[in-house]
């Protein structure tokens, strides 16, 4: 699932465990929109948003980048 992979990627970038993140993702991006993108049939989309001290980009082809570094894939 994209949302789980995204949370894991952010945790990896912060060198912590997902359940220890001190960021509420829904305060920075719509988690409902992320779920809709995960179900999208095409892979020609990109979602980018900022968190405190980090920039996150998700690409429909399966890449999750945090601060322009590939952290995880999904799909």
Short description:
This protein has 75 residues and is an alpha+beta fold. Helix content is 28%, strand content 28%.
Describe this structure in words.
The protein is of the alpha+beta class and 75 residues long. It has one domain (2-73). The mean pLDDT is 94. The protein is globular and about 30 Å long. The protein has helices spanning 2-13, 31-39; strands at residues 46-51, 54-59, 63-66, 69-73. Strands 1-2-3-4 form a 4-stranded antiparallel β-sheet, covered by helices on one side. The longest helix has 12 residues, at 2-13. Residues 6-67 form the Halobacterial output domain. It comes from Halorubrum rubrum. Pfam families: HalOD1 (PF18545). This is HalOD1 output domain-containing protein.
Task: Give the helices and strands, then pairings.
Elements lengths: L1 H12 L17 H9 L6 E6 L2 E6 L3 E4 L2 E5 L2
Antiparallel strand pairs: 1-2, 2-3, 3-4
Number of domains: 1
* Residues in β-strands, percent: 25-35%
- What is the arithmetic mean of pLDDT? 94
Please give the number of β-strands: 4
Measured between the Cα atoms of the first and last residue, the distance is 7 Å
Helix/sheet category: alpha+beta
- CA radius of gyration is 11 Å
Q: What is the molecular shape? A: globular
The main sheet comes to: 4 strands, antiparallel
Poorly predicted sequence stretches spanning 5 or more consecutive residues: none
Number of helices: 2
**Helix and strand sequence:** HHEEEE
Strands of the widest sheet, in order across it, are 1-2-3-4
Please estimate the helix content.
25-40%
């Amino acid at each position: 699932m994209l949302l789980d992979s995204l949370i894991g990627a952010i945790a990896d970038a912060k060198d912590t465990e997902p359940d220890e993140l001190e960021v509420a993702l829904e305060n920075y991006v719509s988690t409902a929109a992320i779920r809709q993108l995960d179900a999208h049939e095409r892979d020609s989309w990109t979602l980018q948003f900022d968190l405190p001290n980090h920039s996150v980009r998700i690409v429909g082809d399966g890449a999750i980048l945090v601060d322009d570094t590939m952290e995880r894939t999904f799909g």
